[in-house]
């Protein structure tokens, strides 16, 4: 090998070694630090369960009468609940002639009306008050005659701040 070839080979070898060292430096040594922590996730799926005696007998009501009774609702689930009352549309349609309040709230104003909140294990007595307008006469009485207030009457429990129709 002549001197010139030796120099070229030496130069090419030096360049290759330099490029290799630069590549190694750019990618690091392959060592890194790490740390791992472990833990557990705990939770229970809540339940919404209520027991209620919804049979309310208001008897016979005449114009000008106000009658009342009560129903009791108990939260037997493991989550607090909002209580809603739903009255059938046929009854709500008579709102001009009657007022129906549960726990102080007129329940003839919407499909579902919020009547309170009940904590876990809590029990609430919901007063039910029916008033018939004193202006009801024979002409308007026909709309009320035989009106069954219990048709579809229900109490719905939902998780807090959730509307039953959601």
From TrEMBL:
Keyword annotations for this protein?
A: Signal
Give the signal peptide range: 1-25
Mind telling me which InterPro entries this protein's record contains? Peptidase_M73_camelysin (IPR022121)
- Give the top-rank taxon of the lineage listed in the UniProt record for this protein: Bacteria
UniProt-listed Pfam families: Peptidase_M73 (PF12389)
Name of the molecule in the record = M73 family metallopeptidase
UniProt source species: Cellulomonas dongxiuzhuiae
